[in-house]
């Protein structure tokens, strides 16, 4: 394997990367109403790329860690880095994205859309592959694309960058390594982006003894070893593991970039510290454990369901269900799928019972009690947002139930559902 200490880029050589048309096209399309923010995103992306290996070097590799808050624009950042890599002469980009097909497909769709791969001239700028294998046709097409970069008579705008997205899975990574070994990459600068780098990438067998390596980690080392000239960027919101691994580990970062989330970012710091009225703590007695087994749905779950349904109903009444707008609620009680099924059953039973009660006569005491509980949920939401009168929502509550699907999203059925959330107008999920 390559010497891990050899990938420290020279500090005085960080300004070689420049903003170009591909990066500018991307940020302008993503942030059309915020030119200042678009410029900042592109400037940061070019700076990150510039801390890696120069595309005109003979050999070398750099490892960087890019840290951003949850849902703060990490994907836009590495997409801008990818676009800038093309602008700065990188013929090959590999994105290691997701440990499941749904996550990989989501990332691939996002990349294709943001980079305008399917635009009229997209084929001139990008050649894309997802989980490729080392078949003769793929090898030939990629070899031809790389040869275009070597040909000085081909205009730069017609040299297509090869963009590969691959699942973070040892089998798919092994296929990719075999494919790349069949190519002449001696003079090919490459960019590798490891999305959610804290998940599965690091050596989970380090405690098993000297030389022990987990399979995904080993495949990533093989991927890096087959690329003589590359920059490896780790993107994550939880950087503790990449920062704390042994400094001689090849995945130990040699530089770190912290992303600016922007002035309008709403994240954990605001929700949990700056605006505590937006959160409610789940009481300890409502959390299932070996010492506290639950046989009935906890009251905090039922309260949260009522809050969610009031939100769905308000959207219906206010006419916010036009297009593909959704309201989603995630219930994550445990890492064990058995509890997922139990909570799925509890939620379904609660919905069935509430719908039955709402069909009772207006003066029925059970119906009055249920509407009293929904009124409490209404009052909760009304402290943070303007709502239509509660009386208007009562009549639309049955529609909220009918438009809400309850999905169990895990791999207990063999694999994770590809489309767990169906987009329909103002649907709750």
Structure description:
By secondary structure, this protein is of the alpha/beta class. It has two domains: 4-258, Rossmann fold (3-Layer(aba) Sandwich), CATH 3.40.50.300; 280-428, no CATH class. It is built from 14 helices and nine strands. Strands 3-4-2-5-6-1-7 form a seven-stranded parallel sheet, sandwiched between helices. A two-stranded parallel ribbon has the order 8-9. Helix 6 (136-150) links the parallel strand 3 and strand 4 (161-166). Helix 2 packs across helix 3 (74-87). The longest helix has 22 residues, at 337-358. The protein is elongated, with a radius of gyration of 25 Å.
Strand-helix topology:
Elements (H helix, E strand, L loop, with lengths): L20 H10 L4 H16 L9 E8 L6 H14 L4 E5 L4 H14 L7 H4 E5 L5 H15 L10 E6 L3 H12 L7 E7 L19 H11 L3 E8 L3 H5 L10 E4 L9 H7 L24 H19 L8 E2 L9 H22 L6 H18 L7 H13 L24 E2 L1
Parallel strand pairs: 1-6, 1-7, 2-4, 2-5, 3-4, 5-6, 8-9
Summarize the structure.
By secondary structure, the chain is an alpha/beta fold.
What level of helicity do the residues show?
40-55%
Radius of gyration: 25 Å
The chain-level mean pLDDT equals: 87
- Helix and strand content put the structural class at alpha/beta
> Globular, elongated, flat, extended or rod-shaped: what is the shape?
elongated
Strand order of the largest sheet: 3-4-2-5-6-1-7
Q: What is the CATH class of the largest domain?
A: Alpha Beta
- Spans with pLDDT under 50 lasting ≥5 residues? 1-12, 420-429
Annotated CATH homologous superfamily of the largest domain: P-loop containing nucleotide triphosphate hydrolases
Q: What's the helix count?
A: 14
Please summarize the sheet with the most strands: 7 strands, parallel
